[in-house]
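Look over this entry.
=====
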Amino acid sequence: MTRVRHDPCYIGGVPLNLSSTIAVSATPDVICLSHLRWDFVFQRPQHLLTRCARKRRVFYIEEPIVEPGTQPSLEQRARGGVTVVVPHLPPHAADMEVDRLREMIDGLIRTHDIRDYVLWYYTPMALSFTDHLTPAAVVYDCMDELAAFKGAPALLKDREAALMRRASVVLTGGQSLYEAKRAGHHNIHAVPSSVDVTHFAEARTITSDPIDQAAVPHPRLGYFGVIDERMDVELLRDVAEARRDWQLMMLGPVVKIDATTLPDCPNIHYLGAKKYDELPAYIAGWDVALLPFARNKATRFISPTKTPEYMAAGKPVVSTSIRDVVTPYGEHGLVRIADDVAEFVAACDAAMAEDRGSRLLRNDVFLKQMSWDRTWARVEGLVNAALAPPEPSRNTGAMRSSSAATESGHV
């Protein structure tokens, strides 16, 4: 049964401008705490939570925006069935920020009449203002090793340890991250990100170029994604200088690094961030898709979602030796692996010379086992199991061994 309420919400006398119509379902809601802006790039959280929102209410709470002169408030907007919530705060001491965020979360729960709910974390740092809550279950979807990223908070490791103790179920974004963390929780599962094959396969039939790419000559070698400390900028520069007839197309926002430190070569084209819906049109005009990641602590456990997306688009892929790309993609002959300049250039040359029909056949056979719907079905099952009452005879040690054996065989 669904009940509808019409009440305003105020926190500290400040109206929050929340929706006036609030449906309360018997299915537990999801309150997600994330360090990622919903509208930044469309990736794992968006794919999973839009599917989650088909059956239950989902509130996606971003990190606060701190602005001088602003009044404490919650901005709310709808995205694909998900309610995106953005706290706005004035500058103040850290302890005051935590207190204010606690009040905001409590107010959000009251206003939406949220009773049974799952707390879903993408950032352990949110534990500081949510540890007083009493959810039906706690999900920690560990996409990346955030502590290894540039500018990571000093408290992040401690907060993650606390979150692991509280979590009902832990998911990891890749196999290597699972192996690094599996000893830390009895109910942890490797859940690599998947691919929207139909969306990216559009690139196979698109024949027109976006305006900002149309004038660039071929061969074109492209990358889309965040451009940050994980990018091997020296490799990019050296490849561009070694093959001045190649055009390197770089799509994505520049984050956490000074844009002036990026290689300034006439055949490297920085086209900025693109919408998810625009990506197939850009990839369609590339001859090779690239994963030019540095090998450093920030990339040790990454599992790039763009690997199967490039494959679905029908492009040959060349990558540096990122572990979750080497296994399984490199080992199955789906991606060429190279690290130094000479090897990388040779791999790109070989990729452009390979037979397209054979490549598409190999890619499609592999991609048949992958879809976001299948991934969500698996995650939903794990969440539902976490919501179920524990079995008295459960042997957590046996569970850990069984999970490790199962997940280590995942491809």
